[in-house]
Amino acid sequence: MNNDRRSEFLNALQVFVPPGSFVVDDVVELLGDEEIWAFYVRPETIFDADSVYERIVVFLATPRRLVLMYTDTSYEMSSAGELVTTLQAIGFDSIKEYHVVKRRHLEGDHAGELNSLTLRLRWGSAFTQDLQPAACDDPACTNDHGYVGVTTNEDFQMFLDERHDGQYFAQGVDFVRTLVSILGQR
Fold first, then answer.
1. Which superkingdom (predicted)?
2. How far apart are CA 183 and CA 64, in angstroms?
3. How many CB atoms lie within 10 A of CB 38?
4. What per-residue string of b and e applies to 114-147 under the rule 16 or more CB within 10 Å gives b?
5. Which end of the chain, N or C, is less surrounded by CB atoms within 10 Å?
């Protein structure tokens, strides 16, 4: 049985990049002859301190790995602009755990319907620290009590919300369901 969705993926990607784009070449080169079992493609707008970037986000599931691709339109290094593509591939055997959080409408005509979905994957390459000043129970105390914090290991998080993701919500939910099914078989 042929599960390969490569042609569907390339058609979805070419909605966001011009025909003959090197972005397509980059992802095809990374994949080689691997089949694409699931994919999710969507545009994003990224804001930082002094710039706004248009980004194309691609998530792919092949028989053996998860591929993440981010392509930004950047004017940082060239006033004419350039496409900056980052590709990351993670073997499914490296993924240590995953969490799926589903939120559903509580009441009304849409009661029980999914309204947001969060997927978190952990494979051990990135850690986040959230530090805050420590304190004691004395509100008048001015001593330095150091810091308290939490270190978490979430290498990847995908958040989908029906209100914000609009036409891309259902496609993202389908991708997460397929990915979780693949991970569940490992």
1. Bacteria
2. 10
3. 20
4. eebbebbbbbeeeeeeeeeeeeeeeeeeeeeeee
5. N
Sign, Cα dihedral of 167, 122, 47, 16: negative
3-state SS record for the chain: CCCCCHHHHHHHHCCCCCCCCHHHHHHHHHHCCCCCCEEEEEEEEEECCCCEEEEEEEEEECCCEEEEEEEEEECCCCCCCEEEEEEEEEEHHHCCEEEEEEEECCCCCCCCCEEEEEEEEECCCCCEEEEEECCCCCCCCCCCCCEEEEEECCCEEEEEEHHHHHHHHHHHHHHHHHHHHHHHCC
pLDDT of residue 152: 63
Q: State pLDDT tens for residues 11-31.
A: 999 888 877 788 888 888 999
Q: Which of 14, 12, 70 is nearest to 38 (CA)?
A: 12
